[in-house]
Structures are given as structure tokens and as C-alpha cells.
């Protein structure tokens, strides 16, 4: 079961300048930053609102750490913009299995580590009407899922 929009991933060339745009324009503050070497991103999470499932929704600003990463390749081709959407679920394994069973390509055999210790996987954009789609289970059951 998918219970919320966990985040919208936005690819940018310069994380600090993009963070400053979201702060100055909308008043959104950085909730968390980290580097995910496996994914090749440096990211800032801006918390937008808490959600009725005990989780939250974020904007995820993404700067590539290397040109051959998913975000690096995408930026070179498309420039800055919305890169993916992510749905939150209490059970990323079950959700991925169910969606795989419907014939949608799930990119990872097993979920990998995402922002703030979450477990994530992705669905191929070509099977999702052009939208790269991520599934997320947050790390902390007490603060995010129940
Ligand atoms: C590529 N395509 C996209 C796309 N990226 N379409 C929509 N949205 C995107 N973001 C299209 C692209 O235009 C091509 O279509 C086709 O897919 C193949 O793309 P490609 O450029 O040849 O690239 P690939 O095939 O090497 O890689 C595409 C995939 C890759 C989706 C497989 O980006 C991937 O593995 N993504 C999952 C990991 C990821 O995105 N990590 C960064 C975020 P045409 O031109 O052939 O029609 S990390 C994150 O979100 C974290 C850590 C978190 O949330 O916690
Ligand atoms: Co993401």
C-alpha cells in the first residue's frame, strides 16, 4: 500500500543556490542533507508537511557527485527540473513485489539505502508513462510509518 507522496526529486547543478531559491522564494528550510555515494548524489531534504500516516512529504534537491550517475546523465540531457516522484509505503518490499507482478520493471532486486536511512527502489520510467517513480519506506517506524 502506498500511503503518501514521500518526496519529489529535483535535479540541480548547484545545491546551495537551489536551496537558497527554495528558502528565499517559499520559506522552506533544509531538514536534512547527506551524500549518497551509491546513488551519486548530494541532496537536501526540505520538509513540506507531515502526513496522516505518521510520515511526511519533502522536496529532495539533488546535485550529482559524478557525471556518470543517474542524475548527472539526466542533467546533461535535460537540464534542471523534476527528476522523479517517490511514494511512501510501510512495506517497500511488498509494494515492489506487487508492482513487479503487474509487469512494471522494478530496477533493484532488493531495496537499497536512501535518504535518512530509508529503504528505496525505483520503477522504470518507460513503464510508468515517462515518470521515474521511487518507492520509500522511512527508517524510523515511530517517526514515519506505523
Ligand atoms: C531517464 N529517462 C527518464 C529519466 N531518466 N525518463 C523520465 N525521468 C527520468 N528521471 C529516460 C531517458 O530519457 C531515456 O528515454 C530512457 O529513460 C533511458 O535513459 P538513459 O538516459 O539511457 O539512462 P539509463 O537507462 O542509463 O538510466 C535510466 C534509469 C536510471 C531510470 C534506469 O536513471 C536509474 O537507474 N535511476 C534510478 C536511480 C536514481 O535515479 N538515483 C538518483 C536519485 P529515451 O531517450 O530512450 O526515450 S537517488 C534518490 O532519489 C535517493 C537517494 C532517495 O530518494 O533517497
Ligand atoms: Co528520491
Automatic annotation (TrEMBL):
<dbReference type="GO" id="GO:0046491">
    <property type="term" value="P:L-methylmalonyl-CoA metabolic process"/>
</dbReference>
<protein>
    <submittedName>
        <fullName>Methylmalonyl-CoA epimerase</fullName>
    </submittedName>
</protein>
<feature type="domain" description="VOC">
    <location>
        <begin position="4"/>
        <end position="138"/>
    </location>
</feature>
<dbReference type="InterPro" id="IPR051785">
    <property type="entry name" value="MMCE/EMCE_epimerase"/>
</dbReference>
<comment type="similarity">
    <text>Belongs to the methylmalonyl-CoA epimerase family.</text>
</comment>
<dbReference type="InterPro" id="IPR029068">
    <property type="entry name" value="Glyas_Bleomycin-R_OHBP_Dase"/>
</dbReference>
<keyword id="KW-0479">Metal-binding</keyword>
<dbReference type="InterPro" id="IPR037523">
    <property type="entry name" value="VOC_core"/>
</dbReference>
<dbReference type="GO" id="GO:0046872">
    <property type="term" value="F:metal ion binding"/>
</dbReference>
<dbReference type="GO" id="GO:0004493">
    <property type="term" value="F:methylmalonyl-CoA epimerase activity"/>
</dbReference>
<dbReference type="Pfam" id="PF13669">
    <property type="entry name" value="Glyoxalase_4"/>
</dbReference>
<dbReference type="InterPro" id="IPR017515">
    <property type="entry name" value="MeMalonyl-CoA_epimerase"/>
</dbReference>
